[in-house]
Amino acid sequence: MKEKKKLIPAEFIAAAVIAAVIIAAAALAIRSDEKKRGRVDGTYSCEFPINGSETKSITVFYKFDAKEGTYEELWGERSLMTGSYEAENDTVTLTSDGNEQLGAESETETFHILDNLLIPENYIYEGALPSEQTFEAECTMKDIGGQQYAVRFEKDGSYSYTVKSASGEENSRLTGTYVRDGDFLHRMNADGAQMTDFYVYDGKLAGIFYTKEQG
To answer: Which of 139, 121, 16, 36 is nearest to 86 (CA)?
Structure first.
């Protein structure tokens, strides 16, 4: 007597098909996210002079791994923060994992993507900048602690940079000159020390930007 073949119930087949579709969709989503993150894969850096010094400075790095979807922020050689990131259109969002060993708290930070530059959203000042080589304009910004920053540009190529406390008390004031080169504003302090550049992003002043390192 021949053994009858066992038929696989239709609901089992349907479940298997649905599972395969879900797995395929998840794989596509992962590849899509990795491709988006690939726009900011690698290392970006910005060098900050210390107190306007010509010889002393510190470089801040952001290191991105598009495949893993992770990043690390370093101040010099000191790891300050780690976490994950996602890219969408012309922005990238960093979410810290709040690793206490690094002395960091969980937070989210947004950057604008522009060619080989990353521009932090929280360092874009209020106030519009004209397109001329030299111009009159005032740009202001307030950080999460309430500290106030003001940059005043003059038509003669001079500028001033003022920092005030949350109560309005002036903490520091720098003066110097600026030279425009496209969207870059090269700055020199009054004592001759070279300062970090400003950048004109979408007609506004970006106080900080990070440049992708080659190789």
So the answer is: 36
CA count, 13 A, side-chain hemisphere, 42: 14
**8-44 pLDDT, tens per residue?**
566 656 555 555 555 544 444 445 567 778 889 999 9
Report d(CA 70, CA 42) in Å as an integer: 11
Instruction: Please indicate, yes or no, whether the overall pTM of this predicted structure exceeds 0.85.
Output: no
pLDDT one-digit tens code per residue, 166-189: 888 888 889 999 999 999 999 998
Residue type, 21: V
Looking up tokens 């002393």, which residue turns up?
56
Q: Which of 176, 177, 179, 182 is nearest to 131 (CA)?
A: 182
* 132-155 average pLDDT score: 94
Helix, strand, coil in percent for the chain, rounding step 5: 15, 50, 35
Handedness of CA 82, 83, 89, 91 (dihedral sign): negative
Please, which residues have CB within 8 angstroms of residue 133's CB and are 6 or more apart in sequence? 180
Provide the 3-class DSSP secondary structure of residue 3.
Answer: coil
Are the beta carbons of 92 and 39 closer than 8 angstroms? yes
Closest CA to 125 of 181, 61, 185, 172: 185
When computed from its CA atoms, the radius of gyration of the chain, rounded to whole angstroms, is 25
